[in-house]
Write a structure and sequence with these properties.
Radius of gyration: 18 Å
Oligomer: single chain
Number of strands: 8
Mean pLDDT: 96
CATH class: Alpha Beta
Shape: globular
Number of helices: 10
Helix content: 40-55%
CATH architecture: Alpha-Beta Barrel
Structural class: alpha/beta
CATH superfamily: Metal-dependent hydrolases
Number of domains: 1
Largest sheet: 8 strands, parallel
Low-confidence stretches: none
Distance between the termini: 20 Å
Length: about 280
């Protein structure tokens, strides 16, 4: 079979509690060439957050992991910044106003790493995908707008974490992005039935690498990327998909003539190059 290069557009690695670099090794052996490494939640590393500067520990650990992955011969991009769940937890402990302020300043610190070339983008920023109060959602939306402005100024990638409400969510984000002027927008965990709608608005859909999702997406377009959203948590092995399974799933689709080599190359190489300006 013709060899195919595989990219994982959104992956978390935890060398303290999970497989860490071993997961990247398995991915490379499976045909992986690119891995976008996104920081975990602060509590994944038992980091206590009381002030914005506490997130520096999370950022630096993520950057260190990415450097180790590069030594394996994989290309990487690094995305850093607090997840919406961080704001929710901080609001419980410190009140909503203080929580929002900490998250904004934490993103300012993340932006400095991007400015220095130590990270490639910001995220995952956005809104909770679970039910929460209107006030929390509004605060998360304000943080999102602020991060989009930072990303515009840096011309960097942003990974979005959002509720899955189809065109309602897509149109809301498109209005924000158009108003602010940010341009490298990745819909993390995008709904596979909406990849064409997202790409038609010059944004990037990143779908989880499950076979059914890929089949649904590729019927519409090849203008999307694939992610594992690997949590690297040994206590939750089946929570998402493993990075190396993206390769086996892609090969199944090739064998079954559901996807061509040309389309697979576009998804796993050309689209990654377009988003991150990185190529094999």
């Amino acid at each position: 079979m013709q060899q195919i290069l595989i990219a994982d557009n959104h992956c978390h690695l935890n060398p303290v509690k999970g497989l860490g670099i071993k997961a990247a090794e398995k991915f490379k052996k499976a045909g992986g060439w690119f891995m976008c490494i996104v920081n975990l939640l602060s509590w994944s590393y038992d980091i206590t957050i009381t002030k914005p500067e506490d997130y520096v520990k999370l950022y630096e650990r993520t950057i260190e992991v990415a450097e180790e992955v590069k030594k394996l011969g994989l290309h990487t991009a690094v995305i850093i910044g607090p997840h919406p769940a961080e704001l929710v937890r901080l609001a419980e402990n410190k009140g909503l106003s203080e929580a929002e302020n900490i998250i904004r300043k934490a993103y300012e610190l993340a932006a400095k790493y991007v400015e220095k070339g130590l990270a490639d983008g910001l995220g995952e920023v956005g809104r909770p995908h679970w039910e929460t109060s209107h006030e929390i959602v509004e605060a998360c939306s304000r943080v999102l707008d602020y991060v989009l402005q930072l990303a515009k100024d840096l011309d960097c990638v942003v990974h979005l974490h959002l509720e899955q409400k189809g065109m309602q969510t897509i149109n809301d984000i498109y209005r924000r992005v158009s108003r602010i002027g940010a341009r490298r927008i990745v819909f993390h965990h995008a709904e596979s039935s909406y990849v064409k709608a997202i790409s038609s608005k010059k944004m990037y859909a990143s779908i989880t690498g499950k076979k059914s999702f890929l089949i649904e997406a590729v019927k519409q377009t090849e203008n999307f990327v694939v992610e594992s959203d690997f949590l690297d948590d040994l206590r939750r092995p089946g929570a998402v998909v493993a990075p190396w399974s993206i390769a086996s799933t892609t090969r199944k689709l090739l064998n079954e003539n559901i996807i061509s080599y040309e389309k697979a190359y576009k998804i796993h190489v050309d689209n990654i190059k377009e988003i991150y300006d990185i190529e094999p």
